[in-house]
Each structure stands twice: as C-alpha cells, then as structure tokens.
Design goal:
heterodimer; A: 249 residues; mainly alpha; 78% helix; globular; B: Alpha-Beta Plaits; 6-stranded mixed beta sheet
C-alpha cells in the first residue's frame, strides 16, 4: 500500500511540473468557459427572489470549466502514448493503478486555479462571495474532476492509435452532459424525457449542490446528493481507468 | 551502488511464443524461442522489420505477456515477477521516454524516484548522468526543444538511472543521422564496459550489430536462425571469390575445376563463377595458378569478405536490405506491436 501511495505521489508530482512551470496554460485552457461567461451572463434575465443571474450562472460555469478541463486531460496521455514516455513508465516499477490515480488526482490543481480565477473575475460584479460555500463547492468539484479525469484517461487508453475516437467521443458527450446538467439553462419545465435524462446525469446533482454552496446555503439533502453524484463519477472513473491502465501495453 | 555481482544468466527463455490475432488471423510474431544470455553480454537481435525482435523485447520487458512458454530476466519471471523484473531492468524504447512537456532533469529525477531513490539520491544521480552523457547544456530545457540525438541520450540516461542489471534498447539508432548513430554506438559500448550491465538491443542495421555486439542473434519470421559472434557468423560463411571469364565455356570449365575445392560452394552465372569458401582470400593465388594450368584464363578476380547481410542472405535466401524495403505481410503487425 505504501508503494501505491508513493508511486501515486510520484506520478502526480511529475504531471504537475508543467502546470507549475507554465500556469498561463491553465488560463488558456479555460478560454471557452470565460467566453460563455462573458457572452451569456449579460443575456440572462433577472430571476425574481433568487439573487442575481450571475449568482445562478457562475457555479454552472465553474462546473463547466471542471468538466472541460478534466475531460480534455486524456489528450496529454495520448501524447505520451505516441511519444513513448507512457511505455517507459509502464516498464518502470510504478504500479499501474498509481499511473492512473496520480494523473487523475493532478486534475484538482488546475481546476482549483480556474475556480479561483472565475470567482476573482465575477466578485466585483453582482456575484456575492460566500467563501466557505465556494471552498466546499470547490472540494465537491475536485472529487468530480478526479472522476472525469480518470474517465478521460480511460478513453485515451481505449483510443490507442486512433486519436479521432477520443475526440469524437469526448466532443459528442461534452455538450449533452453540460446541457442536461442544467449548466447553461435551467432544466425545470423541460419536456419529460429531458427531465429524465437530466435526473440520470450525475453532474446535475453536482451542479445543484455547487449552486447552493456558492450561494452560501447548506441544504443537507442537495449537498448530500451532490457528493453522491461526484462520488459515483469518481468511483466509476477510477474503476474503469485503473482497469484500462492495467491492460495498457 | 553497483549490483552486478549476480551469478546465473541474465535472461533465459524457454519455448517463448507470442501470437497476435488480427482480423481473425493468427500471426506468430515469435515462435518457440529458447535463449540464454549471460550476465554482462552485449547482444544484438538482428532482423528485418516484422521479424519479431520488438515483440521479443516487449515480452522480456513485461509490456506484453507471452502466449506460451516462459522467460526470466535477472532471475525473475516476466509474468509472475513483473515488478521485480521492472526494478532490475532499464528500457529505452523506440520512442522518446522523456515527456515532451517536461524538463530533461526533472524526468531523470522522477525516474530515479520511481525506482525508489530518495529525493537527494535521485538528484545526485541525475546530475551524474547529465555530466556523463553530455547533457549539461540541455538538461534544463523542455524535452520537445531537444534534437533527436540529444533526446536519445536523455532516453538512455533515463534507462540507466538505477544502474540496471539488464539494459534493453529497442532500435536505439533508428532515425539518427550517421554521426549521431556512431556516437550512440560508442556510448553504448562505453556504458557496457563501465557498468558491466547486460545490454540487449534490437537493430536492423547490419553495421550496428557488427560493430557493437559481442553476440548477434539473427531473427526472421519469429524464429532464431543464427546465434553467434559476428566474426564467427561471417567466417563460417567464408569469403566470396568471383572470377570472370571471356566466354561461358571457360566459365563452365573453371566451375568444374573449382568444385573440387573442399568445403566450398560454386555458382556459375554466364561469364562469372562465384566460389564461397573459408579464407578464400588466402587461396586466390593458388586457385588462379590451378586454372591457368588447366588452360583457363580468368579476365578478372574479386574477393569480398563476408558481411552480416551475406550471412542473412545465406540463411534466408533473401538480403536483409531487400527484406527491409519490400513491405512484407508482417509489417503491419510490427507497427501494431510497436504502437
């Protein structure tokens, strides 16, 4: 077990080196959510009684940033599979599970940097900063990012030698996941089938809980469902990811 | 830190076999390989693309399991003792082991940590390797900015971080220019001499196998077809003496005379006769005198020392260079294996 921990830390540290060295890349990676924030927020109607539109929209954008960053991350592994450095690590004594888990854990760091940037950008506007809630929301999204990142690595491993497959699947799943989770528009009042899809999407619960927490409220049931949603994604991601890594050659 | 006082062979394989199934067809990439490689040997697997060299190396380095048979490396089974094998070996693959976004030195340190070195030891060892492999000017640059030769040296440095008992190099010089290839060969020889590691490399460059390895294992279609020192493989084949004549009749007469030379092979091609015989260069004077006594006047004589390509041609009926350039049906397999 202790080798698993030290191997995982080793893998994570290696993955983080480019992040620390080139933090600007983290900003570039979140251009799209920032554009959504800039273009969508002014169009949002003021919602009666439930705070500013920004208050509702920002947690969704934060969740979107987490989903996008983590779902793209498999492309880094694909690059390493092509160059040969993945193969080199497979022949090193590092355990297969550590090669996956270390990478997935690393996703938390750029995600937190991005959350900090978004919150810093919107706080001067009509967004009320509830620091405790934001931190709790960020912790929730960390768990979610680990799961999505692990799934992305699994997809990269499964797409060995066929990059198009990774991008096709990632792009195909990305927006339906975002939309049915109610990130950009509320799903309430949608047709029944869409509501059902939304209910089956674990990200829905993560987004709902993040919204509650960012607003400074702590409804136990919503938060619990959010944690459960993120935990399901994390467990599934790590399971599938470790299995794919064990098969990698 | 050296730990090469092991007794016993570095590598043993028994009936080692690997099949691949693609489009419902089973391809035997490696068949029934029995090998024993001693501690400290420098061995080259030589053969055309698709011969099974890389597949063999991938089994020995635990990347893929054998279909049947067994192999042990540094005393550990490649299936049941994977982690122990990985601890004992260094591996320099066909690609670049160092990550493109990383700094060379960081990769050396992280590789050392992966092999269980303490932080301080990993940094010390990285520094040693940077100096030893002449990487000081580039070690703190991003790997993607290094030249092909510099990257290859970095890859080798990474393979040596833990002073492995066995170092595997898969096509180490492919893609390098002649100058860098020569440098790499010197480097491998020097490291082999200094560390006492067993070094196993694959190559399809005849000159490389010839210049570098103490022992050459010639592989074709997944089987070992020769296994000896380059010098003995070549001398076993003998020199080629090619004698030209002014008429086919003279050539035929000369051929019937030359066929009496013991342990030789003779082939006639219109105006010339090829005689393959050991130490042919030392016999030429006598042979020509004999022909003259028979009244046959050669118009020209060439003597060629054997090359490993001749050895390959002799064993397989085709030249290694040809085998290389003609895309055989096994080529896609190798690319699949190497991917």
């Amino acid at each position: 077990m202790s080798t698993f921990v030290s191997d995982t830390v080793n893998v994570m540290n290696r993955e983080l080196k480019p992040v620390w060295r080139e933090p600007l890349a983290v900003v570039f990676a979140m251009i799209q959510p920032l554009v959504f924030l800039g273009l969508f927020a002014p169009l949002l109607p003021e919602m009666a009684g439930s705070g500013s539109a920004l208050q509702w929209f920002v947690p969704g954008i934060v969740a979107m940033t987490a989903l996008m960053g983590a779902s793209f991350t498999g492309s880094n592994l694909m690059e390493e599979m092509q160059s040969g450095s993945h193969e080199r690590q497979l022949v090193s004594p590092l355990g297969r599970p550590a090669l996956l888990v270390g990478r997935a854990l690393k996703e938390v760091v750029p995600m937190l940097m991005q959350v900090a940037i978004i919150v810093a950008v919107v706080t001067p506007f009509s967004f009320d900063l509830h620091l405790g809630g934001v931190l709790a929301g960020a912790a929730l999204l960390s768990l979610f990012s680990i799961g999505v990142g692990a799934l992305s690595f699994a997809l990269a491993l499964a797409s060995k030698g066929e990059d198009w497959m990774f991008w096709t699947i990632q792009q195909t799943l990305l927006f339906p996941t975002l939309l049915t989770a109610g990130v950009l528009l509320p799903v309430e009042g949608a047709p029944r089938w869409l509501e059902i899809v939304s209910m089956l999407n674990p990200m829905t619960y993560v987004v709902d809980a993040t919204r509650a927490l960012f607003a400074g409220t702590w409804p136990a049931d919503v938060v619990a469902q959010g944690v459960a949603g993120a935990a399901v994604v994390a467990a599934l991601g790590l399971l599938v990811g470790v299995r794919a890594m064990r098969r990698s050659s | 830190m050296t730990h090469h006082n092991h007794t016993g062979p570095a590598i043993v394989t028994r009936g080692l076999t690997r099949h691949f199934t693609s489009r419902k067809q089973t391809v035997e990439a490696v068949t029934d390989l029995d090998l024993e490689i001693g501690q400290g040997e420098l061995v080259a697997f030589l053969g055309p693309n698709g011969a099974g060299k890389s597949t063999t190396l991938r089994m020995l380095t635990t990347l893929i399991p054998p279909t049947s048979g067994s192999a042990s490396v540094a005393g550990h089974d490649v299936v049941t003792g994977q982690r122990d094998v990985r601890r004992a070996i260094g591996f320099v693959g066909q690609g670049n082991g160092a990550g493109q976004r990383q700094l060379g030195r960081d990769e050396l340190v992280s590789q050392g940590r992966a092999h269980g070195l303490s932080r301080a030891d990993a940094h010390r060892r990285a520094e040693e390797l940077v100096t030893d492999l002449d990487l000081a000017a580039v070690a703190d640059r991003k790997v993607s900015s290094l030249s092909g030769g510099q990257r290859r040296r970095l890859d080798i440095a990474m393979g040596l971080v833990h002073l492995p008992r066995v170092l595997f190099l898969d096509e180490p010089s492919t893609g390098l220019d002649p100058q860098n290839r020569a440098n790499l060969q010197h480097l491998v020889q020097r490291l082999h001499a200094e560390t006492g590691s067993t070094v196993v490399l694959t190559t399809h460059y005849l000159e490389e196998a010839d210049a570098l390895a103490g022992r050459v294992i010639v592989v074709d279609h997944g089987r070992v077809i020769a296994d000896d020192s380059a010098a003995r493989l070549k001398s076993g084949l003998g020199d080629l003496v090619r004698v030209g004549f002014s008429s086919p009749a003279d050539a035929a007469r000369a051929a019937s005379r030359l066929e009496r030379v013991p342990d030789s092979r003779v082939e006639v091609d219109d105006l010339s006769v090829d005689l393959r015989v050991r130490d042919g260069s030392a016999m030429v004077g006598e042979l020509l005198a004999d022909l003259g006594a028979d009244g046959v006047r050669p118009t020209r004589v060439e003597v060629a020392r054997p090359t490993l390509d001749d050895v390959f041609l002799d064993l397989t009926g085709r030249s290694l260079r040809e085998a290389q350039s003609t895309p055989s049906d096994t080529t896609p397999l190798e690319s699949e294996v190497a991917a």
